[in-house]
């Protein structure tokens, strides 16, 4: 039985690992650590197929410690205890390196079971996770480990890995000459969305789909690559960091008035299929980032959002795109959110004060005896429907929450208010 190509082509040396140029390469963190042979406790954090397991294996190979591997999805505290029980054996006298995959699936008690051993150095822990460790891993573990982030692999680096894998094929299929066109390799690399394992799996599928041919030479074309990568180019879990990072980039691009970036991140979110989050974020943006610079933005956005929700995907992408481009191209103001947040800060900190008596409700018997509503001036009885009187509590009488933004609409607001006063 032929092993999966992703396993056969796994690099055995740090110099063969593609991508991760921020941590791998001359004088980079992981390269220096591995060449030193002194491996510390580390947590590898990043998407699937970016080299976490490969680098962990390479780390283990440069130490004289015995390697144990566990996956937290199907392991327990008992497995940790079983490893600990072997620490005093002659075989493990130099210590143990434990590679714990998907550590986020261990609960607090299970994670804490490791503390004693990584504290005294008898177990060197390399844990990996696809989730943000600062959300899922307990501080006691984090404080004893170095967090190393692995990023999605650029398609040009994936092409290097694929071409290297092609060089291995004669050993796997000695009776066939298997070739990949440059276009096929390029497509697979791009369609794998930063995941080397996915790209090698796609390459494997292309080969298996052609092996039935009686020809000694098998050529994998771009069309073959298209067949095995349809709808697999992009995927993310709606509860994952990737999803929330996309939402964050989406809003920041609209706020930054970059319609091209905004529509790109919309495409990612549409492909992820989370219509509700897109609609909710657009409504927030219209109030938080456009706000009073263009007050009717929320009305137009609400119409687009309602249309999208009624249509559903795939047609929903059209009114969503309209809303995104509309918001990205509008003037921006955050005066509304700044005003309410500063007011909330005062209220929550106890800096509110008593409501002035002339503003209190006077529509009940005995209100006047309590001094309620006495002296209130009804603005509509005065020129321009304005009369100067105190509205804020005494301790906040000079407080200014609303600072008009520098845009045409709020310039008009400011001029009107200044003229009144």
Give a brief description:
With 421 residues, the chain is of the alpha/beta class.
The tally of helices reads 19
Stretches where pLDDT is under 50 for at least 5 consecutive residues are none
Alpha-carbon distance between the two ends: 86 Å
* Order of H and E elements: HHEHEHEHHEHHEHEHHEHHHHHHHH
Radius of gyration: 31 Å
Q: Which percent range describes the beta-strand content?
A: 5-15%
* Major β-sheet annotation: 5 strands, parallel
Strand order of the largest sheet: 2-3-4-1-5
* Number of DSSP-assigned strands: 7
Roughly what is the average pLDDT, rounded to an integer?
A: 88
Commentary on this structure:
- The chain has helices at 5-8, 29-36, 52-61, 77-84, 108-112, 115-119, 133-136, 139-142, 155-172, 182-191, 196-210, 222-229, 241-255, 259-272, 275-290, 297-311, 317-328, 335-348, 408-420, and strands at residues 42-45, 66-71, 96-101, 123-129, 146-149, 177-180, 217-220.
- It is an alpha/beta fold.
- α14 (259-272) packs antiparallel against α17, α15 runs antiparallel to α16 (297-311) and α15 (275-290) packs parallel to α17 (317-328).
Secondary structure blueprint with pairings:
Blueprint: H1 5-8, H2 29-36, E1 42-45, H3 52-61, E2 66-71, H4 77-84, E3 96-101, H5 108-112, H6 115-119, E4 123-129, H7 133-136, H8 139-142, E5 146-149, H9 155-172, E6 177-180, H10 182-191, H11 196-210, E7 217-220, H12 222-229, H13 241-255, H14 259-272, H15 275-290, H16 297-311, H17 317-328, H18 335-348, H19 408-420
Parallel strand pairs: 1-4, 1-5, 2-3, 3-4, 6-7
Helix pairs in contact: 9-10, 9-11, 10-11, 10-12, 11-12, 13-14, 13-15, 14-17, 15-16, 15-17, 16-17
């Amino acid at each position: 039985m032929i092993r999966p190509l992703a396993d056969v082509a796994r690099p055995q040396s740090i110099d063969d690992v593609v991508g991760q140029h921020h941590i791998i390469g001359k004088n980079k963190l992981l390269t220096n650590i591995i060449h030193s042979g002194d491996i510390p406790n580390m947590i590898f954090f990043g998407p699937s197929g970016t080299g976490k397991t490969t680098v962990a294996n390479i780390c283990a190979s440069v130490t004289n410690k015995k390697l144990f591997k566990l996956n937290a999805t199907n392991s327990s505290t008992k497995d940790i205890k079983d490893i600990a029980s072997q620490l005093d054996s002659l075989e493990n006298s130099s210590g143990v390196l434990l590679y714990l995959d998907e550590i986020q699936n261990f609960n607090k008690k299970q994670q804490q079971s490791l503390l004693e051993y990584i504290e005294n150095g008898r177990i060197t822990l390399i844990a990996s996770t696809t989730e943000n460790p600062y959300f899922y891993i307990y501080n006691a573990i984090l404080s004893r480990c170095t967090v190393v982030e692995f990023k999605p692999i650029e398609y040009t680096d994936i092409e290097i890995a694929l071409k290297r894998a092609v060089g291995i094929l004669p050993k796997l299929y000695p009776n066939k000459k298997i070739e990949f066109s440059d276009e096929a390799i390029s497509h697979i690399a791009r369609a794998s969305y930063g995941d080397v394992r996915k790209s090698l799996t796609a390459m494997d599928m292309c080969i298996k789909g052609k092996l039935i041919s009686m020809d000694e030479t098998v050529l994998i074309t771009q069309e073959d690559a298209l067949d095995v990568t349809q709808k697999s180019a992009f995927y993310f879990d709606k509860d994952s960091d990737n999803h929330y990072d996309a939402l964050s980039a989406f809003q920041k691009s609209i706020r930054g008035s970059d319609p091209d970036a905004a529509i790109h991140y919309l495409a990612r979110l549409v492909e992820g299929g989370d219509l509700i989050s897109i609609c909710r974020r657009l409504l927030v943006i219209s109030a938080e980032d456009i706000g009073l610079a263009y007050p009717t933005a929320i009305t137009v956005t609400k119409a687009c959002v309602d249309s999208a929700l009624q249509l559903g995907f795939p047609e929903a992408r059209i009114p969503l795109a309209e809303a995104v481009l509309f918001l990205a191209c509008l003037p921006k103001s955050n005066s509304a959110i700044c005003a309410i947040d500063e007011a909330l800060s005062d209220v929550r900190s106890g800096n509110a004060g008593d409501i002035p008596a002339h503003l209190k409700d006077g529509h009940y018997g005995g209100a006047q005896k309590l001094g309620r509503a006495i002296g209130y001036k009804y603005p509509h009885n005065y020129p321009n429907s304005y009369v100067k009187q105190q509205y804020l509590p005494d301790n906040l009488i000079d407080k200014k929450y609303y600072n008009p933004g520098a845009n045409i609409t709020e310039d008009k607001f400011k001029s009107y208010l200044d003229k009144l006063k």
